[in-house]
Structure formats: structure tokens, C-alpha cells
Amino acid sequence: MTSFLWKGSRGYRLRPWRSPYLRWRIETYCGWKAEEIGFVDFWRFIWRQRRDLWRFLRWAARMKAAAGARSVIRTPSS
Known about the structure:
- By secondary structure, the chain is mostly helical.
- It has one domain.
- Helix content is 63%, strand content 0%.
- It contains four helices and no strands.
- It has helices spanning 2-8, 20-30, 39-48, 50-70.
- The radius of gyration is 17 Å and the shape is elongated.
- The protein starts with a helix and ends in an 8-residue tail after the last helix.
């Protein structure tokens, strides 16, 4: 789960509200203008949408695990 957060806040880990990627995700989710999202707006969004965000992070972790399981190459026994 933390993998998505780590990658999503790359370059902005101490100030995630400035991350263009996270701002874009908020813009596409709720329609706010990405350029107008500041510190207070970011944390208000996180708090109000915490259940949906938690559910999304669990889903992303499951998808990553499923992709990893499929990428394992099995060699036939000799």
C-alpha cells in the first residue's frame, strides 16, 4: 500500500500537496482545479475521502501483488 504513496509523492514527500501528480489525481476525482489546490485543500480532501482513499490503496496493493504473481517465470523440471 505504501508503494503507491511513495511513488505518487516522489519529489514532494515532505510536501505532498505540491505534487503535480497527486493534485492531478484530486482534480480528476472531484473536479477541483489542480493549480488551486493548496495545503488546506489537500488535507481537507484527504480527511474527507479517507475511507475511499484507503479502499483505493488496498486495491492498488492487490493489483500490484497480482501482477507480481503473474510475472514469475516458471521453468519446467528437468
